[in-house]
Every structure is written in structure tokens, then in C-alpha cells.
Amino acid sequence: MELLSVQVGTPRTVKWQGKNVSTAIFKKKISGPVKMGKLNIEGDIQADLKYHGGEDKAVYAYSHDAYPWWCKKLDVASLPPGAFGENLTFDALDEKELCVGDRLSLGKCELQVVQPRFPCFKLGILFKDISILKTFMQSGRPGIYFRVLKEGQIQEGQKLEILERDPNQVSISEFFLLKQKGYKDMSLLKRLLKVENLNEEWRETFTSAIAKLEAQ
Fold it and tell me: What's the CATH number for 3-180?
């Protein structure tokens, strides 16, 4: 998994459906090396810290091998790196292979897989079309949010390598589909709760979902 490009952005105010909205989803490609810290990549600032950013969403990565599908779907010749607001664009980032809790290295940095992306309306702002949210959910390619366990310098050409696999082996793709299907897979919910480094908000969500299923 090779890092093809790094993107950062800062909040800007845009008009959306008659209202002023602050968003940092518009990312600009930069040349490395650049520092990747616990909360973000140097030069990247999230606009809404309630739903974006923080240690559990420090950096968002997307796979360039999903771009051809999107080009065909959107009827465009090409898409630039960072087209989906991602900080890191890799040549291949397999959501079916990488699992919640996996630890990986990128240069001297260490990352941990946290969750897939579930898009908000700001993706609609980026593409000037709110229907992109439905298409994104149908694509099966959500990309991955990472924690930064060890800070350091990153730059194009570095390899993302697996250091340790989480023993519960819940892939990002499984996680993504679980929410789409309404948290009805009891077995998968229980496996996720066994992930030691599961985000606490998700732990509460999955615990509640199990309680509802057991009460049926």
C-alpha cells in the first residue's frame, strides 16, 4: 500500500441550500515531508470537531483504485487526489482486508484502524450534489479513519505496512455494512465489542443495539 499523495485543508465558509456553512472538506495536495500528529496532519484543520477530527478521526485515507469506478459513475474523465476530502490517498487500501484495531506503520509513524467513513452533507457540498451520499454508501468503498499512535514525518512513496492484526478480524467493510443493515447482526456486534481499542461512542452504540436485539 503506497502513499500516492497527502492533502490538507482549512475551514472555509460556503453557501449551501441558502445557509452559510463552515467546512474543511476541500483538500489541497502538498509535498512532503510533513508532520502527522495525534490530531491531524500539519496544515489540516477540521471545521466541526463534534463530528470530525479528534484522536479517533485524526486522518482519513482513501484508495485510488476506487477512483475508476467513481469516474464511470460520475461520468468524468478523472478525479484529482483528495477528491473525497481524504488526507491520504493510497494506491490500494482494501476495506475488506483491514480490520478495526489493526496497527500499521507509515514511515516512522504508527496508525491504528478506527472505522469506515459515514458521509455527512458536506460531501454533497464538495460534489455540489447531495445525492452523492447515497452513491457513496452504495459504492462499498468508505475509506478508513485512523488514529495516530506514533507521530512522525510522512511523504509520498512511503509504504503502509501491517504491524499487528486485531484478533477479532472485523473488517472495515463489515463495519460499514453493519450500520447500513441496521445493526442486526448479533454475532458481528459482539465481535466488535471484543475489539480492545474500539471507539467508545461505537461501543455504546453496539451495546445498545445488542440490548435491543436481545429484548425482541
Answer: 2.40.33.20
